[in-house]
Amino acid sequence: MAEDSTLVLSLVEEFVSGLQDSKAKDAAKGVKDGQFTILQLVEALGLSLTSSQPQTRARGVQLLSEVLQEIYGELAEREVELLIAFYENRLKDHYVITPPVLQGLRALTKCAALPPGSAVSMLRSLFQDVHVQSLMLAERACVYNMLINLMETRESELKGLGADFVFGFVQSMDGERDPRNLLLAFQIAKNIIHRGYDLGKFTEELFEVTSCYFPIDFTPPSNDPHGITREDLILALRAVLTGTPKFAEFLLPLIIEKLDSDVPSAKLDSLQTLTACVSQYEHKDLAEFLEGLWASLRREVFQTSSEKIESAGLTTLTALTSCLSRSVLTSESEDSLSNFLDLILKDCKHHLCEPDLKLVWPSAKLLQAACSASMRASHIITAAVMPSLVEQYTNRTQCSHRRTLLEVVQRFIQSVTTCQSDSEQSVFSAFREPLCSMVFSALSESNSSLQITATSVLTSLAQQAGLLSDSDIELAVDHMIRLLLTEEDERVSIAVIDCAGALAELHPAVFIAKLIPRLKREMFSEPMDRDNREASELHSHQAVRQRCLSVLAAISSQPSVVQESTPVLLEVLSSAHTGGGLFSVDEVVSACQSLQKIAKQAQDTEETGRCFHDVIIPRLLSLALQAALQDEGASGGRSPLVEEVILSAMVPVISTACSRLQPTLAGQTASRAVSLFLDGDVSFLPDNSFPSHIQLLKKQQGDSWSQSQMVCLLIGCVCSLPRSVEVPQIDRLLSELEDMSYTCSHPLSYTSAAKCFAGLINKRPQGDSFDDLIQRTMKRVFSTLDSNSSSVRIQAFTLMIWVAKALLLRYHPLCTALTDKLFSLLDDSDLGPMAADSFSLLMNDSADVLNRGCHADVRIMYRQRFFSENSAKLVQGFNTAPQEKKSNYLKALSNIVNKLPKQVQVTELPALLSLLLEALSCPDQGVQLSTLSCLEPVLINPPPALIQQLEALVSRLLALITSPAMSVRIASLRCIHALSLFPVHEVLPFRARVLKAMAQPLDDKKRLVRNEAVKARGEWFLLGSPGGR
Amino acid sequence: MSGGTRLENANPVIFQRSGERLLTASEEDEDVHDPIDDREIFDMIRSINDPEHPLSLEELNVVEQVRVKVNDAESTVGVEFTPTIPHCSMATLIGLSIKVKLLRSLPNRFKIDVHITPGTHASEEAVNKQLADKERVAAALENSSLLEVVNQCLSRSI
Amino acid sequence: MKEALSLVQRLSAHPDSRCWFVSWNPNGTLLASCGGDKAIRIWGREGDSWICKSVLQDGHQRTVRKVAWSPCGNYLASASFDATTCIWKKKNDDFESLTVLEGHENEVKCVTWAPSGNLLATCSRDKSVWVWEVDEEDEYECVTVVNSHTQDVKHVVWHPNQELLASASYDNNICIYKEEDDDWECRATLQGHTSTVWSLCFDATGKRMASCSDDRTVKIWKEYPSESGQDLSWKCVCTLSGYHGRTVYDIDWCRLTGALVTACGDDAVRVFKEDETANPDEPVFSLAAQVTKAHNQDVNCVTWNPKEAGLLASCSDDGEIAIWRFQEED
């Protein structure tokens, strides 16, 4: 025992007189380990605490407080009680002692064993004896933390203090300037408000002491270590100010005043604060301020020059209106919502009658913002404005005025949609008739902008549940048919097609009954007396057909429509095949594209999928096969269906449809397709009059390609099926495909065979047999490539690149052997350029095979992985390659880098920058172009490595603005434009040089180049100039 | 514009913006020389921002394509602009912005004349004379507060 | 017409900027230029070519609009848009800034030394013309501020042998000033141009004056004894119109040969010769030579070399100086 007291005394001595700070830790450890108790420590401090030197007393208290910070969790209630009494007493001591006292008290507020009543007594002493704002920053933080701690654990006791607590807090924070402490103080204020502390008569004081910081005007110092942002403070203060309706009478006048400010950020903060507070308010809180608030909001929207403020103002108006809409209407109370809306209508409605003046739009936006707040608001406002909008529309004759009115109407419909539920009757029911006649009259005008606006109004009206009648829809469809058949303006047809798509989803029957038959008649009508017709008429007839083909796809979202529309499209193909020349190759391609679109957008995949499986796919295969088998010497020439463009357009129809098939149908498709291509089994095809010995995958007589190229359709059938679907006879199929890819000399045939092979192996399960297959394939490919005399090196190369892609996507280890071979071919005198280009094939998504849509095995980030594994090889290859081969490496590099996600480009750039800069000075325009297109996105957010190389970059880019290739000139100017957005101090030194160099492209012979130069030079002029950047 | 200031013309007539120029096949043909034409000049100035309103000069009908005349062969450009009201105090500033935009955007072989549309402004002659005086224009652009306003009119336009 | 103006040399004098003005020193060995890059450059002949001898920077905050040599050739004055006029003193081959004359409210447009070397005149956009006196200690004192124009004063020039000053203005007029009881007064206002008068110059005798204007004409004015004997009387005796396609920015009358040269906004330099047989009250000038594309942009200034007949310098918005030789046909 005596030993212990010696220990504690020596610790005290060393800390207090010896000024050894570390002894506090030792003392805390002593208490924790039970060597002495906290009260023994207090006793041991006796001498220092009674010293006549305040510094010594402070040092003594500091030791105790530091120990308490370590061990507050282990104190007993009795100890706590004594310590609190001790500390409260010390608060009355000399001011130098206050900091350690507060430190100790803060530690005690964290005690679980705080005796009842002690929180109150601590706070009373604190509020009474300490003037918080004369303390230093850290001590003030200490006080706030005490309050926060006690509020967490002793809420009911604190509430027992009544309004005194609020008053004490108000006095404590009054005058606080430090942002860190403000965050704490705002947190306390927020707790007071949100946790229901009694504000008593101090509501206004609490408001005053916090609102004096509004709007927050704080810019953190550039080297701020605390990371407090202006936004943090704004949000913390906003939570206080908007927390209670009791503040309404003080806050609302303040906001009205601050909205008048010239500082945009103050306006914005005011608007957002207002939006936040009204969600807590009731109409009576707002009543007396509504006129003032409206006047401010109106001014901000009418006169604003900032979209941000305008949109914040509109959001606020919506919030205000929806607050008023929440009030329950009783017979005797004033209807504050309708009074408020009257104010808005009085100021805005008449501007809607001036569709050529500036204020029409701000007025419409304000009304629409109010309209979108609630059903009641939208009823009141639409009832007030719709009749006059309709009347204006009828009275105005200028198309631009009518269009503005129609757009205003459109926005009203959309604003109502946001607050209307489907079960309710549409707000516009009362205006159905005038609205429809407005739309139909606009559709009948010859002005295309007006027609386009009318189609979007029509779409919005149709989406209002139950608004339009069947006869309205029929009339609308009549208008659409007329426009599709007669209107030349492409923008109008696009708008009509979109509108038809939206309406057909809701009203399929009308489209089946009216639109499809009418379009079909038009498409299959022979242009009368074709020889005598003007070329322009023929041209317009073709345009009509293109529109019909597009609209057939657009309307086919419901299965019932698909049943009717797809036969028309198929008939286009069969009509082209049977001859007569009714349809051009382009039209047949469009028909295929429409079919693909239908396959893609089908909502009910089961019913539509069956239609594709049962009818469309067999029909397409049958037509293609008939064309392929046609005697080449047949009279009337070959069927257009052997054309590569048409076949290539059929592939995505089949593959899109197959990728969405149900498992059973998918399996059936696979086995039908395989037996057709391997065994010539044509039993599932319609029009079955085919010869019996069809061998599509075998080398044809005389190297004829009309049958061999059919293999591209096989890709569609088997490469896009879900991975679970078993492809029958897979080994035989793969081996025949591999053979075919060597034996054919027809590019579409051997490329398709290679793609099909690749598409299939990508989905094959891992394992030894798979590896054996790949090894065999590789061996044959390599030996062909290594034999320079081989006549099928290109074929072998094609197969290699597709197999490499198939393996790369699934991270197969054998891929490396193939890509290494590819790198070595960059030096090949024949295949070098092709090898360089093929990197773009490896990195790009392929449209018809090996993509995620086809259920291919595509691992995430395979590009990054490929890049990180190979970039060093490329750099090394570049460095050792002979001069004339270097451009192949640069092209390969730019092909790879181009496709990397920007994040990766930015991190990899430092290593590659010198190579990319080299690529910019490579004489190959293709390399220049692809390097520029890879640089441009990186320049938008330039990594430091790039900034260090600015001099080289600027020189090389400026050298390219006079390139003989227009596309290079344009791309380099875009990059130079992007440079102007770099940090000003980095690019300013280049300003004069860039401006001078860019005088020349201003006089470029090509307008597109001049346009880029004008934009870029304009930005560079603004750089470092007042009002610019 | 701050909330307190009153605009000279708070509710001006708004005109439709013309669409983007349609791309022609010859513009994409490397070998064809595209002369600088009226539309190209108009495209340079139509989106200049009005100093008072958040609207472009085109939307306020201050500039119109029919009032732009270029002769590429003779290297001359003439632009007439129409202030929204005859006493518009911003007329010189608008003219200056148009002139500066053209000076920055055209090859320097061009002689650029910017005038007020005859009969549309009370101080037409005085404004025209100022805009034609290159010494005054040069001095104005060395005045940073004036340059700031001009740059603001031009910067939002791109 | 035989091409009688031949290019001697072209100098990229103020790159990335415009060259506003060039001025020969009195013995014709040095040429000073100034421009939008706020700098003054001094050019001298070395062998067959003209090279930059020195660059005077940091004297002005804005465009240097004009430069003028003192009659002794040891001082150079520069007028700038920064509202000041700088006096530079020649020291060996270099120049040092001696003093800065302040007082004008805004852009100083022109500065010029009287033949005596004791007086200096400046003019400004503030519509005033100031006359400064120079003493032996190189102290400059403003003796008069005259406000006779209603708009910017573009140019001031001294009579070759009398203490007589002429100014040209944006108000389309020319004013002529004389000293009266220690004060300078406007004694005549010459009206006739229909737009800004950009420049003017006296002939060798000082009896005639040539002015050029934004109205695309050149006018010749002649002094006549006035009836009252007090006021000066100048009359326009000849107007050259139809020659210039745009604003005529500068004109110079060769004191050795009597030939006139003009600088024009249509990029051309033109030389006019007087028909010596014509009636002196109705002089006739004809175009003797012109270079239509003398520069790529507006020609701002032309000036004859004071000692070497036929040698002249011009400068332009493209930042270049061109030196030309005018050779007459026989």
TrEMBL record, chain A:
Residues 42-303 form the MMS19 N-terminal domain. Pfam families: MMS19_C, MMS19_N. Residues 548-979 form the MMS19 C-terminal domain. It comes from the Eukaryota. Its main location: cytoplasm. GO terms for biological process: DNA repair; iron-sulfur cluster assembly; protein maturation. It is found in: Cytoplasm, Cytoskeleton, Spindle; Nucleus. Gene3D superfamilies: Leucine-rich Repeat Variant. GO terms for cellular component: cytosolic [4Fe-4S] assembly targeting complex; MMXD complex; nucleus. SUPFAM superfamilies: ARM repeat. Keywords: Cytoplasm, Cytoskeleton, DNA damage, DNA repair, Nucleus, Repeat. Belongs to the MET18/MMS19 family. PANTHER family: DNA REPAIR/TRANSCRIPTION PROTEIN MET18/MMS19, MMS19 NUCLEOTIDE EXCISION REPAIR PROTEIN HOMOLOG. Component of the CIA complex. Key component of the cytosolic iron-sulfur protein assembly (CIA) complex, a multiprotein complex that mediates the incorporation of iron-sulfur cluster into apoproteins specifically involved in DNA metabolism and genomic integrity. In the CIA complex, MMS19 acts as an adapter between early-acting CIA components and a subset of cellular target iron-sulfur proteins. This is MMS19 nucleotide excision repair protein. The gene is mms19.
TrEMBL record, chain B:
GO terms for biological process: chromosome segregation; protein maturation. Keywords: Chromosome partition. Pfam families: FeS_assembly_P. InterPro entries: FSCA_dom_sf, MIP18, MIP18-like. Component of the cytosolic iron-sulfur protein assembly (CIA) complex, a multiprotein complex that mediates the incorporation of iron-sulfur cluster into extramitochondrial Fe/S proteins. As a CIA complex component and in collaboration with CIAO1 and MMS19, binds to and facilitates the assembly of most cytosolic-nuclear Fe/S proteins. As part of the mitotic spindle-associated MMXD complex it plays a role in chromosome segregation, probably by facilitating iron-sulfur cluster assembly into ERCC2/XPD. Belongs to the MIP18 family. This is Cytosolic iron-sulfur assembly component 2B. It comes from Parambassis ranga (Indian glassy fish). The lineage of its organism: Eukaryota, Metazoa, Chordata, Craniata, Vertebrata. The gene is ciao2b.
Automatic annotation (TrEMBL), chain C:
One of its GO terms (cellular component) is cytosolic [4Fe-4S] assembly targeting complex. GO terms for biological process: iron-sulfur cluster assembly. InterPro entries: CIAO1/Cia1, WD40/YVTN_repeat-like_dom_sf, WD40_repeat_CS, WD40_repeat_dom_sf, WD40_rpt. WD repeats lie at residues 22-43, 57-89, 101-142, 146-178, 190-222, 292-330. The keyword Lipid metabolism does not apply. SMART domains: WD40. The keyword Lipid biosynthesis does not apply. Keywords: Repeat, WD repeat. Component of the CIA complex. Interacts with CIAO2A and forms a complex with CIAO2B and MMS19; the interactions with CIAO2A and CIAO2B are mutually exclusive. Interacts with CHD1L, ERCC2, IREB2 and POLD1. Component of the MMXD complex, which includes CIAO1, ERCC2, CIAO2B, MMS19 and SLC25A5. Interacts with WT1. Interacts with CIAO3. Interacts (via LYR motif) with HSC20. Key component of the cytosolic iron-sulfur protein assembly (CIA) complex, a multiprotein complex that mediates the incorporation of iron-sulfur cluster into extramitochondrial Fe/S proteins. As a CIA complex component, interacts specifically with CIAO2A or CIAO2B and MMS19 to assist different branches of iron-sulfur protein assembly, depending of its interactors. The complex CIAO1:CIAO2B:MMS19 binds to and facilitates the assembly of most cytosolic-nuclear Fe/S proteins. CIAO1:CIAO2A specifically matures ACO1 and stabilizes IREB2. Belongs to the WD repeat CIA1 family. This is Probable cytosolic iron-sulfur protein assembly protein CIAO1. It comes from Parambassis ranga. The lineage of its organism: Eukaryota, Metazoa, Chordata, Craniata, Vertebrata. The gene is ciao1.
